[in-house]
Automatic annotation (TrEMBL):
Alphabetized InterPro entries for the sequence: Peptidase_S1 (IPR050430), Peptidase_S1_PA (IPR009003), Peptidase_S1_PA_chymotrypsin (IPR043504), Peptidase_S1A (IPR001314), Trypsin_dom (IPR001254), TRYPSIN_HIS (IPR018114), TRYPSIN_SER (IPR033116)
Organism: Drosophila yakuba (Fruit fly)
This protein's UniProt keywords: Disulfide bond, Hydrolase, Protease, Secreted, Serine protease, Signal, Zymogen
Signal peptide range in chain numbering: 1-22
Name this polypeptide is given: trypsin
Location of the Peptidase S1 domain: 46-282
Organism lineage: Eukaryota, Metazoa, Ecdysozoa, Arthropoda, Hexapoda
Length: 282
């Protein structure tokens, strides 16, 4: 062991608090408890990135929101629109959750913007091989109504293809996750404006030096200290330029307990799930 603590990038501290209580595939995050205990009126996230400029949208990015007991809709994970009625996210974002309390919002850059479009999650499917912090952290949500695509605020992202993305490729991460290293507690700051960060992929062998549990179903990216994914970014898209458009190559999965502390971010490698995704698009 190298003494590094890994954690999923949803609302980390919760996993530690809750422990295990008879759920399908490992830890289930108690979102009721989280939103009742945390003061998220100042919401924040992507460490070291910058605001998506005003009037610019990341049209495939969606915010997954949880209906709290007090009737508020709270961002807890990211996702990407892969068809008008399908969202790709991380399995750990939905594992054990009640689909009827989750909706997704598209067409916004600011979580405060009430002019976005909301659709209800009808059901979700997690990859059958999912193991937290190990492999296949990917899930697909069926949503209704389907989003209307307008290409500026709302559009789908291409996830097709099984070509393996190598090291040193420029990739773009977007999310509403914590913008400080310490994802929860007094130092957590959650932005309402979507953050973006351009950085580079790392080879799996290099990544494995730190992230020792890494498997072929994952892809890593690394920036210097102070830049990377953080809590609340989970499930969100890592994309790569492909000609004139973008292709999604990763789904935010996990990192080390202190975000952006010079350790790689681990993503689910989308190309490994090409067949699995295609079967679930119809
Ligand atoms: C899921 O949430 C809905 C809406 O809040 C509620 O009516 C239903 O009882 C919940 N189902 C379970 C299994 O908790
Ligand atoms: C979003 O709303 C919250 C709560 O009303 C407020 O504190 C915050 O300043 C708003 N953020 C922006 C970017 O307008």
């Amino acid at each position: 062991m190298n003494g590094v603590t890994y954690s999923v990038l949803v609302l980390t501290a919760l996993l530690a608090l809750d422990g295990v209580k008879g759920k399908p595939m490992g830890n289930v995050i108690d979102l009721d408890k989280y939103f009742e205990e945390a003061d998220l009126n100042s919401q924040e996230r992507v460490v070291g990135g910058y605001d998506v400029p005003e009037d610019e949208y990341v049209p495939y990015q969606v915010s997954m929101q949880f209906l709290t007991r007090s009737g508020k809709m709270r961002h807890f994970c990211g996702g990407s629109l892969i068809a008008p009625n399908r969202v790709l996210t991380a399995a750990h974002c939905v594992n054990g959750q009640n689909a009827s309390r989750i909706s997704v919002v598209a067409g916004i850059r600011d979580l405060n913007d009430s002019s976005g479009f909301r659709s209800q999650v009808q059901s979700y499917e997690m990859n059958e091989n999912y193991q937290e912090l190990v492999t296949s952290d990917i899930a697909i949500l069926k949503i209704d109504p389907p989003f209307e695509l307008d290409e500026k605020r709302v559009s789908t992202i291409d996830v097709s293809g099984s070509d393996t993305v190598g090291a040193d490729q420029e990739v773009l991460l977007t999310g509403w996750g914590s913008v400080f290293h310490f994802g929860t507690g007094p130092f957590a700051k959650y932005p309402t404006v979507l953050q973006k960060l351009t950085y580079k992929t790392l080879s799996n062998s290099k990544c494995k030096e730190t992230m020792t549990q890494l498997t072929d179903t994952e892809i890593c990216a690394l920036e210097r200290f102070g830049k990377g994914a953080c809590n609340g970014d989970s499930g969100g898209p890592l994309v790569m330029k492909s000609g004139e458009s973008y292709k999604q190559v990763g789904v935010v999965s996990y990192g080390t307990a202190f975000c952006a502390s010079n350790n790689p971010d681990v993503y689910t490698r989308v190309s490994m799930f090409d067949g699995w995704i295609k079967e679930r698009m119809a």
